[in-house]
Amino acid sequence: MNTQNENSNKFFSRFLINYGQELVLLASIIILFVVVSQVNHRFLGGNNLNTIFAGNAYIGVAAIGMSILIITGNIDVSVGALIGVLATICGTLAVSGYPIWFAWTAPILVGIAVNSLVGIIVAYAGIPSIVVTLGMMSILRGGLISVTGGDWITDMPEGFFLAQQDFMGIRVPLLALIFFTILMFYIMSNTTWGRSLYAIGGNPEAARTSGIDLKKGVVIAFAVHGMFVGLSTILFATQLNIIQSTVPPNLELTVITASVIGGVSIMGGTGTVIGSSLATILFAAIGSSLIFIGVSAYWLRAIMGILILCTVLADMARRRRVVS
Amino acid sequence: MRMKSIFRHETILFLVVIVALVILSIQAEQFATIDNLLNQGRFLTEVSLVALIMTFVIVTGGIDLSVGSILGLSAIVLGVAWKKLGLPLPLAILVALSVGTLAGLFNGIIITRFKVPPLIATLATLALYRGLAEGISQARSIRGYPEWFFILGQGEFFGIPTQLWIVAFFTLLTGFILTYTTWGRATYAIGANETAARFSGIAVDKTKLFIYAASGFAASLAAIIFVSRVSTTRSDMGMGLELDAITAVVLGGTSIFGGKGTIVGTFFGLILIQILKNGLSLAGVKSDGTYIAIGLVLILTLLISNLFNRNSEG
Amino acid sequence: MKKYLLLISGLLFSSSLALAGDWTGGDDLPTNPLPCSGPAPAGEAKPYDGGSPTGAPNRKGKTITVVDVPKLVGIGYFSATTKGILDAAAEMGSMNAKTDGPSEANIDDQITLIDNYITQGVDGVLFAANDPGAIAPVLKKALSKGINVVGYDANSDPDARQWFVNQAEFNGIAKSLVDNMAREIGGSGGVAIVTSTFTTPNQARWIAEMEAYSNKCHPKLEWLETVEAQEDNILSFNQANTLINKYGSDLKGIYGMTSVATPASADAVTQANQCGNIAVVGLATPNAMKPYVNSGCVESVVLWNPVDLGYAAAYVLRAVADGDLKPGATSVNAGKLGELQVINGSEILLGAPYTFNKGNINDFDF
């Protein structure tokens, strides 16, 4: 009896250590949903849940890629600019008469290509990723302005709007977010490649001695991130019936915040994509709930900041308790 | 060996600056005039003040993403304290500087006391401080500052823009501190190996607290100069400043992983970006082309510098 | 620590409740609502209050170099004004014009760019200000170097430029938006606003004027809420959706205050299958609104023609440089647009705002 208790305690604390941030986020989401729905029961209406989940899923999908990168000890600040460029490519192809599958595939391929190049510069030239991606952000942003001038892309063909579709009663963006989160969580915790990512970020020396090609590993992590940026772009570009060929403002900060608040350690080596997806949902839910509660719009961002800070501090408090 | 390779990056950067200066003065005759170059100093001021302290922050292995928001918050506090609360302007300036410093100190407390990684802590306060600026200002801009206040941002002393004196002073001061004082050595030691620094008796937390508070102070000083330069106060001031400052610091050769970097490097980084922005514009390149050029220069400069350093090491 | 945080958030929350009252997002400047029906009263003639360049050379008939610095580049609206400027320049044959602006609507980048062009030595500056006060010092510097300065779309302090081409007066736009909304939703019901940011001067002015006009002429329109959505397509869409979800059938109409917010709100209404139940009225360019107007979800889109706005601005600058447009003038010739009237001392009025609808929207391409 006693040992069983101890065992379950041990299991419990192990669970807390490994998935603590995910639990904090999940609990915050549930508390938020319960409290806000008491104030305004429409908050939990099906449409609003769709807005929160499906309307922000593209951020979550991009944050999956970002989390993979951050776990290997890298970062990408050009993600917003790249999504702007890829969405323009995606929409332009669709209206120029190329088949829809091609318009959907192009952002994924270009995303992989651009980020592989970044990965190669980072890994083989030894320039920190923040520097390369800061430069890349500047290049992509300037390039997009010179090429498009910010035109609206309209009249995409029927069937292009993937993000507006339902599948078994659930919006496609939410399904995509759930699917990719579970898939990457499984891959990262159960495959050799997945575990090598943690090793590259957590302890590169040990990773090297255990036979992992660090440079190749970093390039592949960037390529996979590029794939997720492409996937995110498809959701982003097909959500509305029009595409604006500009760089969405501050998107890189939103994506990075979702990843790091989701528990991905910025020093590399720890964290899961479940955390980043939950953090995406939490931020979207906070933004929506503040409108539902009727907080003065002028103070909205301040309260959002306080809530983000609380999440961070709660996680730190939890870690201490677990450690001590 | 290490000192040598640090030196190398600054040398290369210096050469790039010279090359850029020469090419740009050939391309645009108005570029290499005293008037124009001094004038560029005005535009350089705010980001310089922030980038100088950001060098310390990054050398300790940290980062401060909230500087742009602190700038916005301090600007709003300045305006509100002066116009709404009716404080005399010099006192309002003091209040704004204190609020900025406190905001930086608060970052430092979250980072040292609660052990929150700097990137996460300052991402959170980036949202918080900007939010406070918006809430306090209720989205109203504040104007009508007295004439003497504009000396700071629009006036000049001995033919040189006022704020350039301030930047020069802070460049020398920070350069001296980082290179020659125990504080500077502590900063490097923390960045190189925090645990080792702790064991060798360096007051790690105190140093970090001080650096983050200084970062807040620099941002609020930048806010006051900015308000004086544009003669108005808005809650969205300084948006995106953090990335400009970080770009200058990393272009200057400071390692984002900490332990390595110099004020001289940051100084050249700042100069290079500003002369590119100005010179390319004068040479007829539009701002979209300038963005592309700055991105390329950033990547290529570090690429070249790394190649040289690797050769010298190998 | 946490106690303090709770305390702060409590304070913020209570202060936010106490401040309810006015429409969120408007500014504090006095409003001047137009009469509910009938023609607008003639404004009092104001003396010229613009600035004047010092030591400007005689530019009459000479080819002049002009730079146009909009709020930002890379969005459809300012691409359209650029087109108008280039059209006018080509027509006149005596103006070399180019557009250069920041990639984000950022006061500092805009100031830096204008300063660069002053150094470069242009003859004229056209601008659309991100902030009326912040841009003033650099424009005054331009005037002091003998450069002709003309604004359009978003004004600066009057004495920092010579003339401002006003696309449509604030109260005129407000009337047009509110009247269209009232007509579409049958005169009464709850309405909400999606804007860019509360600090954008034009939007804040429009919202304040809309409040004044709505209270005066359509008191049964009930303002519910204003939300910010930056210039972000998807965020605007999500914010509009949140409003729809929050107010349910109490929400009868959404005002879109920017050319990004309006189409995104229309998309939100379309995807929520609320076309016909929730009206979307707003400022937007026709190209972005065609899908929604053609589908019948949106009845009316209010805007001036930005191509004409740029075109007029270029003609006004030419007239100023030639010395044909002097303080005290009552009208100016603007090429194919004919004679434009001077109002408010130093502003030139492009005309009344234009309402696009199903019948005419496909005739426009910008």
Describe the protein.
The complex is a heterotrimer of chains A (324), B (314) and C (366). Chain A has 324 residues and is mainly alpha-helical. Chain A has one domain (48-293): ABC transporter involved in vitamin B12 uptake, BtuC (Orthogonal Bundle), CATH 1.10.3470. Chain A contains 13 helices and four strands. In chain A, strand 2 (166-167) and strand 3 form a beta hairpin. The longest helix of chain A has 38 residues, at 2-39. Chain B has a single domain, classed as Orthogonal Bundle (ABC transporter involved in vitamin B12 uptake, BtuC). In chain B, strand 1 (156-157) and strand 2 (160-161) form a beta hairpin. Chain B is globular.
Number of strands of chain B: 2
Shape of chain C: globular
- How much is the average pLDDT of chain C? 90
CATH class of the largest domain in chain C: Alpha Beta
Structural class of chain C comes to alpha/beta
For the record, the count of structural domains of chain C works out to 2
CATH fold name of the largest domain in chain C: Rossmann fold
Tell me the total number of β-strands of chain C. 14
Low-confidence stretches of chain B: none
Identify the notable features of this structure and list them briefly:
heterotrimer, B: 314 residues, mainly alpha, ABC transporter involved in vitamin B12 uptake, BtuC, two-stranded antiparallel ribbon, globular, C: 366 residues, alpha/beta, Rossmann fold, 8-stranded mixed beta sheet, 6-stranded mixed beta sheet, 10 helices, 18% strand
Would you summarize the structure shown here?
The complex is a heterotrimer of chains A (324), B (314) and C (366). Chain A is mainly alpha-helical and 324 residues long.
SSE layout and pairing:
The complex is a heterotrimer of chains A (324), B (314) and C (366).
Chain A: H1 2-39, H2 46-54, H3 57-71, H4 79-95, H5 100-125, H6 129-148, E1 152-153, E2 166-167, E3 170-171, H7 172-190, H8 192-202, H9 204-209, H10 214-237, E4 243-244, H11 251-261, H12 273-293, H13 300-323
Antiparallel strand pairs in A: 1-4, 2-3
Helix pairs in contact in A: 1-12, 1-13, 3-7, 3-10, 3-11, 3-12, 4-5, 4-6, 4-10, 5-6, 5-10, 7-8, 11-12, 12-13
Chain B: H1 2-27, H2 34-59, H3 67-84, H4 89-112, H5 118-137, H6 151-154, E1 156-157, E2 160-161, H7 162-180, H8 182-192, H9 194-199, H10 204-230, H11 241-251, H12 263-282, H13 287-313
Antiparallel strand pairs in B: 1-2
Chain C: H1 2-18, E1 64-69, H2 76-92, E2 95-99, H3 107-120, E3 124-127, H4 136-144, E4 148-152, E5 163-166, H5 170-185, E6 189-195, H6 201-217, E7 221-228, H7 233-247, E8 251-256, H8 261-271, E9 279-283, H9 286-294, E10 301-303, H10 306-322, E11 331-333, E12 339-343, E13 347-349, E14 354-356
Parallel strand pairs in C: 1-2, 1-3, 3-4, 4-5, 5-13, 6-7, 6-8, 8-9, 9-10
Antiparallel strand pairs in C: 10-14, 11-12, 12-13
Helix pairs in contact in C: 2-10, 3-4, 5-6, 7-8
